[in-house]
Write a structure and sequence with these properties.
By secondary structure, the chain is an alpha+beta fold. The protein folds into 2 domains: 91 residues, no CATH class; 91 residues, no CATH class. The chain is built from 5 helices and 16 strands. The chain has a 6-stranded mixed sheet with strand order 2-3-8-7-5-6, covered by helices on one side. The longest helix has 13 residues.
């Protein structure tokens, strides 16, 4: 038995052919949709930050005041150079080891001497040196370095002559608020006594001999028992020593 068949018109065949050619498979549509990331999402993608431009510094690991390496920091402002004061006798390693960026970024620090050469390691920092700070992004800043004045009031007589020619015979340093004592040679002058004295840490102390009349004695005046030696340290700290003339 023959099955009945329907003859399609030319227009119907054309429609079926067009549908089969231009239809997009569903899996292709899904892939195309995934590839199209909304612009808002692109703008919200986390950006990798550039290096920090921070050139401000701090000394976060502070020791007790008398052991501090970095004493004060004045940040650069308005194009002006900054300033850092460090402890007397502080080395480059000690100063650089005490510094950090205020935002914890990875700065680099260098100490430049007055000869424009980089100072390193155990070299002592000196007044007039410069600290150069370089931020992560290459921004730089400079800080003038100064050294805090010594508070040393202990004295010594380092350039000792033969005993019979010594000017300063004995020195007892002040202790617990007590006045010190110095014994000098008979007939020693003020210039001779002051010329024989120095700070035990080689700092720039000043020394004066005060007579019993509370007047400063100078030059070729002879030192007498009852006079007083006043020692002033670099930072203004003072100490007194009773003077005795050896018999």
């Amino acid at each position: 038995m023959k099955l009945p068949c329907k003859v399609l018109s030319t227009s119907a065949l054309s429609a079926i052919f067009a549908a089969s050619v231009f239809a997009t498979p569903s899996f292709a549509q899904e892939a195309d949709t995934e590839a199209q990331i909304p612009e808002a999402e692109i703008n919200n993608v986390e950006q990798i930050p550039e290096g920090s431009s921070e050139t401000d510094i701090e000394a976060p690991n502070k020791a007790p005041e008398h052991l501090e390496i970095v004493k004060t920091i004045d940040e650069p402002t308005g194009g002006e150079i900054g300033a850092v004061t460090v402890a007397n006798d502080a080395t480059v390693d000690e100063v650089l080891g005490a510094l950090a960026a205020t935002d914890d970024s990875d700065q680099t620090h260098e100490v430049i001497g007055e000869d424009d050469e980089v100072k390193e390691g155990a070299s002592e920092v000196a007044a007039g040196d410069e600290l150069t700070v370089t931020a992560e992004d290459g921004t730089t800043a400079s800080y003038d370095l100064s050294v805090e004045g010594s508070s040393e009031i202990d004295i010594e007589a380092p350039n000792k002559a033969p005993e019979h020619l010594e000017i300063v015979k004995t020195i007892d340093e002040p202790t617990d608020g007590e006045i010190g004592a110095v014994t000098v040679a008979n007939d020693a002058t003020v210039d001779e006594v002051l010329g024989a004295l120095a700070a035990t840490d080689d700092s720039d102390q000043t020394h004066e001999v005060i007579g019993e009349d509370n007047e400063v004695k100078e030059g070729a005046s002879e030192v007498a028992t009852g006079d007083e030696l006043t020692v002033t340290a670099e930072d203004g700290t003072t100490a007194s020593y009773d003077i005795t003339v050896e018999d």
